[in-house]
Write a structure and sequence with these properties.
Elements: H1 7-31, E1 39-40, H2 56-62, E2 66-77, H3 88-94, E3 105-117, E4 123-127, H4 128-131, E5 136-141, E6 146-149, E7 151-156, E8 161-165, E9 175-176, E10 187-192, E11 200-211, E12 223-226, E13 238-241, E14 246-253, E15 264-268, H5 269-282, E16 288-289, E17 292-296, H6 299-304, E18 313-318, H7 323-327, E19 334-338, E20 341-342, H8 346-354, E21 361-368, E22 371-378, E23 380-381, E24 409-413, H9 416-422, E25 431-436, H10 441-445, E26 452-456, E27 459-460, H11 464-473, E28 478-487, E29 490-499
Parallel strand pairs: 1-9
Antiparallel strand pairs: 2-3, 2-5, 3-4, 4-8, 5-6, 7-8, 10-11, 10-13, 11-12, 12-15, 13-14, 14-15, 16-23, 17-18, 18-19, 19-20, 19-21, 21-22, 24-25, 25-26, 26-27, 26-28, 28-29
């Protein structure tokens, strides 16, 4: 583009350009979601206050913001054609009450959930599974006195969070609390529409915080656990504190009866708000990533690394030629803090990284050989997960020299054919584990057939003979193994701590 024009031509061109830019801005702005005006209160509840005789004032503050969500699914059915049902003689007697003529039929299925109004102009937070796959979504407020058709702004299945929008103004929006301020024992209220009986309020306490590792639940778990009754229909509803502020979105229960048994879970509002803001801004959630492999610290690993406790995440491997490697993170480091937030285990680290914007910088505090260090690393974008293929590793007959200190383990040299089968680098060194006795201490520690022992107590292992000698020489209570492992399409190193106190007994 030129920077200078003749006076009149430039003047007229400038006006025309301004009109075009203004038009483009208008079109772009109208297509984008407007930023919601949410109210956030970050002060913790007053835990020294005495309980009153009623929670009615709290309910009056929060309940108007909780809505019913009716999701309709249109199911297409193509029944099997049964000739007798379409036979004229049969129809003469039975009519069309058996419509199995092979033609496609549709059926409308409706499910019920709850949601929470978080801005006066109609933004609603709910659980993704409440609206997942819905063809029509209706929102009812004021105990079903007003109904609106809702559209989906965005969904995030990994956290089970969804954002809806209805065309309305001056709605009773809830105030958002700070879920990081919650403590176990705080009183909470669950508000929703269980079993279609109408809006219902139940009371309980925060039973636990940071619940994770639950199978069959969201990918990113940091649940608030509560004993406030949560039942079918409560999903997507509000979990509020004793001052009526939204601290969680009710999402799931553990129950043998499909009813409340006192083990309910809610997505913390800080996590839900983080997802909501990204869905409104761009329609999707991009997550940060750090290309390293981590493992939780077991009592044996804590002893082997001379750590005071099991808090932190152990770096088992760092992918080569990555920003993490360039920042100075190394295998064997223990990450104890990320951007000022304490790291207790691998899950807490993954959550902290995932909430970072790709391209941003983060301060990682770690223990390197027992000494605290802080490095600055650039966060990359988490790639879309792909299905991993099967493990095509073939079993091969190997020689079986014994490792004395690691009783029950047999190893072999890394022959070129073995490296090819494992898809290792041509110059890789180590001792291949060709057998592990099921009752051995090494098997209990997690050592497997096909692992490659690279270090024993931080000393390099080049071949099977090195493994034998280091195993015979080491008399420590805990043997620290650094191994290389391929599992499906993922390969990397990790650490195992083998109890050496019972060997030979």
């Amino acid at each position: 583009m030129r920077h200078y024009y003749r006076p009149w031509v430039g003047f007229l061109s400038g006006i025309a350009g301004a009109l075009v830019v203004a038009g483009l801005f208008f079109l772009t702005s109208s297509a984008r979601e407007s930023e919601p005006a949410i109210k956030v209160e970050t002060t913790p509840v007053n835990r020294d206050a005495r309980l009153g005789a009623s929670f009615a004032p709290v309910v009056k503050r929060a309940a108007p913001s909780v809505v019913n969500i009716y999701s309709t699914h249109i199911v297409h059915i193509r029944p099997m054609r049964i000739p007798v049902f379409v036979d004229p003689v049969f129809r003469q007697f039975f009519g069309n009450q058996f419509p199995n003529d092979g033609r496609e039929h549709t059926r409308r299925e409706q499910s019920l959930g709850s949601g929470v109004i978080i801005s006066p102009d109609g933004y609603i937070l709910t659980a993704n599974h409440v609206v997942d796959g819905a063809d029509e979504i209706e929102v009812a407020i004021a105990d079903n006195k007003k109904e609106f058709t809702a559209r989906v702004v965005g969904t995030d299945p990994p956290t089970d969070v969804a954002v809806l929008k209805i065309d309305a103004k001056d709605l009773p929006a809830v105030a958002l609390g700070d879920s990081d301020q919650l403590e176990v024992g705080d009183i909470v209220l669950a508000i929703g529409n269980p079993f279609r009986v109408g809006q219902t309020v139940t009371m309980g306490i925060v039973s636990a915080l940071g619940r994770s590792g639950l199978t069959g639940f969201n990918q990113y778990q940091n649940f608030i656990q509560t004993d406030a009754a949560i039942n079918p229909g409560n999903s997507g509803g509000a979990l509020v504190d004793a001052e009526g502020r939204l601290v969680g979105i009710n999402t799931a229960i553990i129950s043998s009866t499909r009813g409340s048994e006192g083990v309910g879970f809610a997505v913390p509002i800080n996590m839900a708000r983080h997802v909501m803001e990204r869905l409104i801004a761009g329609g999707k959630v991009t997550r940060g990533d750090l290309p390293i492999l981590l493992q939780d610290i077991t009592p044996g690993l804590a002893k082997s690394f001379d750590l005071p406790d099991q808090k932190g995440a152990l770096v088992s491997d760092v992918f080569p030629n990555t920003l993490a490697e360039k920042a100075g993170i190394k295998s064997g480091d223990v990450i104890i803090s990320f951007n000022g937030k304490d790291i207790t285990d691998v899950h807490s680290f993954q959550l902290a990284v995932s909430e970072c914007a790709p391209g941003s910088s983060a301060a990682v505090k770690l223990l390197h050989n027992g000494r605290p260090e802080t490095v600055t690393v650039t966060i990359t974008e988490l790639p879309v997960e792909t299905a991993s293929g099967g493990n095509d590793q073939k079993k091969t007959a190997f020689a079986k020299p014994m490792i004395d200190a690691l009783a029950g383990v047999t190893v072999a040299d890394l022959e070129p054919e073995v490296r090819r089968q494992l898809r290792m680098a041509p110059g890789a060194q180590g001792a291949l584990v060709s057998n592990v006795e099921p009752a051995s201490n090494s098997a209990e520690a997690g050592l497997q057939y096909g692992d490659v022992i690279m270090e024993i107590n931080r000393l390099p292992v080049r071949n099977a003979e090195d493994a034998k000698q280091l195993g015979r020489q080491d008399k420590s209570d805990q043997i620290l193994l650094k191994i290389w492992r391929r599992q499906d399409n993922l390969a990397g190193t990790c650490y195992l701590s083998v109890d050496n106190t019972r060997i030979g007994k």
